[in-house]
Structure formats: structure tokens, C-alpha cells
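Hi there. Long-time user, first ticket. I'm pasting a complex I've been working with (about 298 residues overall). I'd like to know whether the download I got is complete or cut off, because the file seemed smaller than I expected. Thanks.
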Amino acid sequence: MHKATEQLSVYLAGQGLKSTRQRDRILDVFVSAGRHLSAEELYLLIRKTDRRIGYATVYRTLKLLAGAGLAHERRFEDGITRFEYDAAEGHHDHLICTRCGRIIEFENEQIEDLQLRVAKKNRFQVQTHKLELYGLCEGCQSKKGKTEL
Amino acid sequence: MHKATEQLSVYLAGQGLKSTRQRDRILDVFVSAGRHLSAEELYLLIRKTDRRIGYATVYRTLKLLAGAGLAHERRFEDGITRFEYDAAEGHHDHLICTRCGRIIEFENEQIEDLQLRVAKKNRFQVQTHKLELYGLCEGCQSKKGKTEL
DNA sequence: CTGCAATTGAAAATGGTTATCAAAATCATC
DNA sequence: GATGATTTTGATAACCATTTTCAATTGCAG
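Hi, the file is complete. Here it is re-exported in full:
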């Protein structure tokens, strides 16, 4: 049992929820993918090895994982919600390639500090934040053509 | 004729598009509102004084205004697209109250610089960016209850 | 085991946004 | 002004990601 599966069990037990084959399977595929996935992408991945899991269950389980702190919900400019596995590491932001969809993560302490300073100046109490830089990744800068997003 | 109406005329003429009562009216109400509006909010505002303008036209016109540089499209975490009138001022970011929906704008040169530095380090060519701080505005910090977003 | 609450899957519903299309409006040209 | 090609409009249907519904199934405490 990986750390993630363990963490899910603990969460489910604590909430009086049930452990199911579907939930374990979805988490497993999700963690293995190791990248940002939309509900549909995950559904299709799971379908490859298990056709007995429904679309709605994938959506429901992703929400559940987000609640358990095992997944983070990200909504970028294309309007599709994506989830990323992120057990409990620190906050990070994203560089998003508008051509190939590639997502690069980064952390920057200085920017975070400046954000808090801005909030303070406006007497605003920050709960979460979101910083996204849209543009072309290295590989796409040399290519020609339309952007994807 | 305000500056915005003038600007729209010039844009329409330049693109071989037509000037219509609806477009002028929508722009006028939009600019007068002086705040971030969703298509639906704008539609309802317009309906108060002119019931002959359709829903679809409001959507189409907002897209048009965005193309003309008269409106900026913003998509926050609630999934609803909002537009803000912004003739040609510089880029700015947002503080968004998760309780009352209030939106405060801010600019911060230092953060922008750091963003470019991060991008450079990742050999990423930035096209646009988005920085949003979600939390409680001053007025909402003292209130109790559920958040709206 | 048993029983009941939680969960599932398939399908329908939802909600914001966009496409369709016939009718109406715009505008360059006469 | 009138004409006519082209654009725009409004009502409605379609779209599409996501959520809800609900009967059937499953997990698990007792």
C-alpha cells in the first residue's frame, strides 16, 4: 500500500466513508500518472485497464481526493478543471504553455512575500492565491502555428 | 460621444463591421457600470432600460469589445467569465473576496519583474499572466458565515 | 450473516456559453 | 432617399463540462 492509498484509507475512516475498489483504483491511476489530469483524461486512463468504473465516479472521487488533501484542483484558462496529485508539499504556481498545454511548476518565495505585502496594504486577508504565466515553453518557441488555448 | 464609443466606432470601421444600436447601448451600460460584470449581469442591467436586446447579443458584443481592447475577459475561480472595462491602462491583478465577491485591483511592478525572472529561468516566453489573491476583504473579515465562492 | 447506510453507474439534468437561422438592420453605392 | 449585398440580431437549440438522480450494488458494524 503506497503512502497515498494509506492516506486515503485514514481519511475515509475518519469521515465515516467507505473504502471501495473504485476509489483505490482511481487514486492509483491518478498518482501513477504523475501529472495534471482532467476528469476525462483520468477516466480514459482508467478505462484502459478497468471498464467497470463510471464517469461520474471519477468526478466524485476527484472531489473527494481534493477534500482529503490528496489532489489539488486547478482551473486554467481553457475552462477545464484539472487535478494534480500533491500529497502535502508547499504551494507552487504554474507556467502554462498555450501551444502544447505543458505545465511547469515553480515556487518563488519572494513573490509570495510581495503578495502578502499587497494584501496587507489593502487590509485583505488572503486565503489562497493563484499565479499563472501563460506563454510558450522552450520547445514551442521555435515551432509555428496556432496556439491551443 | 464618450471616448469608449468613439473607440468602438473606429474599431468597427477599421474591421469592416457595422455600428448598431445594440453595440452602442451595451458598451454604454458596460462602461457606466464601472465594475466587473458577467454577461448575465450586464444583460440584466440593460434589460432595465431596453428589453429589445437579446442575451446572445450581449455575449457576442462582450467578445467583440474584448477584441477591440475595450474590455478584458477575466475568469476567476467560480467559473463565470467576467468582463471589465479597461480602455488601455496597464496590466493589473486582483484581490477577490470569497465572501462578498468584491474585486480590488492592484499593480505591483516588483512582482511582474520576478515573474519575468522565473520565466526566463525556465526558458519560457510569457504572453500573459494572471495573479489572483482570494480571501476576505476588510468588511468581510468581521462578519460570520459561509463564503460565496 | 444481516441490515442499512454509503456508493456506484447510467442516464438525465444543469448552467454558462456558443451556434443556428430566418428576419431585420446597416451602409456603400446609385 | 432607394437598392441590395452583407452583417447583425434575437429566439432558440445545441454544446459540453460537470453535477444530480435514482435504483441497484456494495461495504462494514453489529
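A couple of notes from our side: Residues 16-18, 20, 22-23, 52-57, 60, 79 of chain A lie near DNA strand C (CB under 10 Å from a C1'). The first strand of chain A starts at residue 37 and ends at 38.
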